[in-house]
Amino acid sequence: MDGGMKDNDLSGIVSADRAHVWHHLTQHKPLETTDPKIIVEGKGMRVWDQTGREHLDAVSGAVWTVNVGYGRERIANAVRDQLLQLNYFAGSMGSIPGARFAERLIDKMPGLSRVYYANSGSEANEKAFKMVRQIAHKRFGGKKHKILYRDRDYHGTTLGALSAGGQQERNAQYGPFAPGFIEVPHCLEYRAADQGWGDLSGEAYGQRAADAIEEVILREGPETVGALCLEPVTAGGGVIPPPPGYWERVQEICRKYEVLLHIDEVVCGVGRTGTWFGYQHYGVKPDMVTMAKGVASGYAAIACLVTTEEVFDMFKSDADDPLDYFRDISTFGGCTAGPAAALENMAIIEEEDLLGNCQAMGARLMENLHGLMEKHRVIGDVRGAGLFCGAELVADRASKEPVSEALVRAVTGDCMAQGVIIGATNRSVPGYNNTLCFAPALIATPDDIDQITDAVDGALSRVFG
């Protein structure tokens, strides 16, 4: 560890953490007798804990965020300089980094034109939902207010975002939820039989999964459905790339019934899949796009809701109506550190051709995972896009019976013991928390990729024999 800190230097930190910090997604009972893990330092692809132990981070900060890696001095300096010039002013006014980043961002998103700043992915999605509801009142007498979301997709942690959440275990114990959010089926081809669609595959499956959305619209009544919110690649629900033809048919359906297409790029956006945005793989033209995580690679909090000019114009009016504009504010959407960091983050991706590296290293990661699949029968399916890949573990390939979540945790725990941090679906989809997840930073090298899959190889051998 570069800082040279030892365990005894951090004993007070560990005690303070155990006594006062409430960690995310954590059952704290075990921490009464076990030290919490404190991440002290990060550089490139690696982080060090309080004991000085080095870990290769294969999940970009555990939640798919640090796209350009740790220790980027130029981003830190850009944030520092901006904070000294102007750290904050409410988003009802503009700022220099806010204007500059919006211009740079829109340049990467043909067909879109407006950027609304927020401070988290959950909040950005909430803004989109509010826009849909307000449009319903302004143009459709409040009737076209329903928002469709997809089984297994996740859109955030607030009650509104959970109302659009397709992960039942994430939602458990937090209801009742907001009305008017309607679920459509997932598009995981590997699980077509579980949906009652037999052995459909390829474009036939993609067509069927998309048609299922139209069936929901017709059941609910097209005059009541205002928007469809989807991840371009389902993330925490099992790393699910869309089947062939799916997105093209989805867009056709949305246009047919005047349903706004809202794409949640919180995970996939800004390079994760090898393009600037995941939807750009599929030729889709969304009405709204939300993003967060990789926008500034975690160097500052920032999220964006990006819309077409047509959506923006729906909130402009010459009428003397005090309620006619988008009456919303994000306090920390006015922080200037976010767009300042995002500008440098985008410049690094461009200058170092990290999109190209993502494509090349993503191909290597998939090749390695397919190699592991040939060796370990517990791997039933391998899927992904760019440096965002998953390996679904099954007890039996013929029946596709998922392995238990406890066994998946044993694999991730074994990798952690080897000094490699990988992810997995957990406490999300009942019975299907069985996918190992990989999302290394876009700076990954061939050696990094090989170290990740070597660790998984050893873990699978030890856990499953």
TrEMBL record:
Q: Which UniProt keywords apply?
A: Aminotransferase, Pyridoxal phosphate, Pyruvate, Transferase
Q: Name one GO molecular function term.
A: transaminase activity
Superkingdom of the source? Answer: Bacteria
- State if Transferase is listed as a keyword: yes
- What cofactor does this one take? pyridoxal 5'-phosphate
Task: Reply yes or no: does the keyword Transferase apply.
Answer: yes
User: Coiled-coil ranges per the record?
Assistant: none
Pfam families, alphabetized: Aminotran_3
UniProt-listed InterPro entries: Aminotrans_3 (IPR005814), Aminotrans_3_PPA_site (IPR049704), PyrdxlP-dep_Trfase (IPR015424), PyrdxlP-dep_Trfase_major (IPR015421), PyrdxlP-dep_Trfase_small (IPR015422)
Q: Which SUPFAM superfamilies match?
A: PLP-dependent transferases
Spell out the family assignment given in the record's similarity comment.
Belongs to the class-III pyridoxal-phosphate-dependent aminotransferase family.
Q: Which PANTHER family match?
A: AMINOTRANSFERASE (PTHR43094), AMINOTRANSFERASE CLASS-III (PTHR43094:SF1)
Provide the protein name.
Taurine-pyruvate aminotransferase
**Upper classification of the organism:** Bacteria, Pseudomonadati, Pseudomonadota, Alphaproteobacteria, Rhodobacterales
